[in-house]
Write a structure and sequence with these properties.
This protein folds into 2 domains: 5-175, Rossmann fold, CATH 3.40.50.1970; 179-370, Up-down Bundle (Dehydroquinate synthase-like, alpha domain). Helices cover 44% and strands 10% of the residues. It contains 13 helices and 9 strands. The structure holds zinc ion.
Length: 371
């Protein structure tokens, strides 16, 4: 079967397309794959739905993957003499798998490869094949060139390189059928936030803009229905496509929503879901950025069927409809948890692409408004 899209990587898309996984491993000379997934998916029996038998499995990955989990996965790869990786899951297993693949050929420590540590040029193409199979519709890591990892020192850092884009992505919306409503909602708004932030990024890339805007309209139209009817393959397919589109486009860079949610996602207590954090920040960041990109806000409103002045409020209402929180405090975040977050947000790799220039006070003001 030919790939349906070749843009950043080959994407095999559609209900039932998982049956191609064995052929893909063969095509990329992967005879001894390590399956990287997480405990929740193992409990759901998800590895059993793959059409091929991996050589070994590594599933010890926390919600926000850590350097420790990467090193444990690397040990499993080496012990089993693997020659490639199948990453099955949401963003955490796929991001962890990207780091495992990197360290099979690149020396430790992992932190030296982080974008803000100047690590981009250290990442070479000498990385084993990685086939990504998403089981959520949101992160888009299966087609993205980034991996987000909490390093041993405690910071959540982004490693970014075209060499980290998976060799192939197998996007089968059947794998997302029945996903619980809160996870569907939170990952779906993550996809929306990718479309919104990359569309508003001032970097010049009209091709990515068109993809992002189409993805926004698709997710806006289908996410509430996907949450309400979790076994409808049409809504699931639309959301998986919107997620893929968000990630295909975010090579333009993201913005303040992600700058803020990255350091909060590195907290060990409370453990916070990336998509849920983005949902809380989305309306606030739109309000903050609106004056810097009025044309973009208007275009997004058109894609959503609302006026430019109503876009922020429409996202706030979407959160309510989906049962997502409106405030950080509903997630157990207190003022004490916010210490150092504005500073980390300002230093985040997404900050330079925000459409409105950011100062420390701006990051703090949006945090305070969202608390
Ligand atoms: Zn995201």
């Amino acid at each position: 079967m030919p790939p349906t899209i070749s843009y950043l990587t080959d994407i095999y898309f559609g209900p039932g397309v998982i049956c191609e996984l064995g052929n893909l491993c063969e095509a990329h000379n992967v005879a001894r794959p390590l399956l990287v997934t997480d405990r929740g998916l193992v409990d759901l029996g998800m590895p059993g739905r793959l059409p091929c038998e991996p050589t070994a499995m590594f599933a010890e990955i926390p919600t926000n993957p850590t350097e420790e989990s990467v090193l444990a996965g690397l040990a499993a790869y080496r012990e089993n003499n693997c020659d490639g990786i199948i990453a099955l899951g949401g963003g955490s297993p796929i991001d962890c798998a990207k780091c495992i693949a990197l360290l099979t050929t690149h020396p430790e420590p992992l932190e030296q490869y982080a974008l803000i540590r100047g690590g981009r040029s250290l990442i070479t193409a000498d990385i084993p094949p990685l086939i990504a199979v998403p089981t959520t519709a949101g992160t888009g890591s299966e087609v993205g060139r980034a991996t987000l990892i909490t390093v041993a020192a405690g910071a959540k850092l982004g490693l970014i390189s075209p060499h980290l884009i998976p060799t192939a992505a197998v996007c089968d919306p059947q794998l997302t059928l029945g996903m619980p409503a809160p996870l569907t909602a939170a990952t779906g708004v993550d996809a929306i936030s990718h479309c919104v932030e990359t569309f508003c990024s001032p970097m010049f890339n009209p091709v990515a803009d068109a993809i992002a805007l189409d993805g926004l309209g698709r997710a806006w139209k289908n996410l509430p229905a996907a949450v309400k009817a979790p076994n409808d393959i049409t809504y699931r397919s639309e959301m998986m496509m919107a997620s893929t589109q968000g990630a295909l486009a975010f090579q333009k860079g993201l913005g303040l929503i992600h700058s803020l949610s990255h350091p909060l996602g590195a907290l060990t207590e409370p453990r916070l879901h990336h998509g849920t954090l983005n949902a809380v920040f989305l309306p606030h960041v739109i309000r903050f950025n609106a004056s810097a990109c009025p044309g973009k806000i208007k275009a997004m409103g058109q894609a959503m069927g609302v006026g430019a002045e109503a876009v922020a409020e429409a996202f706030a209402e979407l959160n309510t409809t989906l049962g997502l929180p409106a405030r950080l405090s509903e997630l157990g975040v207190t003022t004490a948890h916010l210490a150092g977050i504005a500073e980390a947000a300002l230093a985040d790799h997404s900050t330079p692409c925000n459409p409105r220039a950011l100062e420390l006070d701006d990051c703090q003001a949006v945090l305070d408004a969202a608390l």
